[in-house]
Amino acid sequence: MNPTVTAVVALGSNLDDPEAHVKRAFADLARLPETWVTARSALYRTAPVGYADQPAFVNACARIETRLAPRALLDGLLAIERRHGRVRDVPNGPRTLDLDIVLYGGATIDGPGLSVPHPRAHERAFVLAPLVDVWPQAVIPGKGTARELLETIGMEGVQPLVIPAPDQGARGQASAAIHVGSRLRGNDDKRGNDDK
Ligand code: ADP
Ligand code: MG
Fold first, then answer.
1. By CB count within 10 A, which of 12, 22, 37, 119 is most buried?
2. Which pLDDT tens digit goes with each residue over 35-88?
3. Cis omega (within 30 of 0) on the bond before 117?
4. Structure pTM?
5. What are the structural domains, with CATH classification, of the chain?
6. How far is the CA of 117 from the centre of ligand 2 (A)?
7. Chain centre to alpha carbon of residue 194
8. Is there an atom of ligand 1 within 6 Å of 124 CB?
9. What is the rounded CA–CA span in Å between residue 110 and residue 32?
């Protein structure tokens, strides 16, 4: 049996009710074989990067424990994307759902069709902010801690999505706003990525 590895999956959507796609995708991840979702980040509304003429994205990260090997995990993610109607046309273009492996333990993988850590994760606040939510001590191999990378880049274009608390009227909404998303466990651990 494969060992259990802590990994992080980045979720993104900017078509057909992005918030709903991302929330459903968290549930889909939990149904992957040999995989457990142990933390969900807040959802973030983010400005498109690379190809600006498209709707804003909703981004998030899931921390998982998995016994799937990296390629089996990627295959599982691509299958979920297809079930969400993902079509690949414009690079960095609009998508119903994008699922990327950001980290797989402390592993570095540089193979055809799979690069881990995700090659652009360290320079994207829309990945780093939710990554820090689910794994405050995360290290991106060869780049540094996610927290320090995020401090350097800043949060421009990345805003936590908030929803009004259920029993508040319009006047109370701003102060009563709560983060979407929840942390299920393990946000204050002091472990490094492969230290388990
Ligand atoms: P992007 O996520 O960069 O916008 P796509 O979602 O269209 O691009 O993915 C294109 C291909 O990137 C996937 O089919 C997959 O084989 C490859 N890929 C390489 N590394 C990763 C990774 N860490 N996570 C997900 N896909 C990856
Ligand atoms: Mg992708």
1. 22
2. 999 999 999 999 999 888 999 999 999 999 999 999 999 999 999 999 999 887
3. yes
4. 0.87
5. 5-185 (3.30.70.560)
6. 13
7. 19
8. no
9. 24
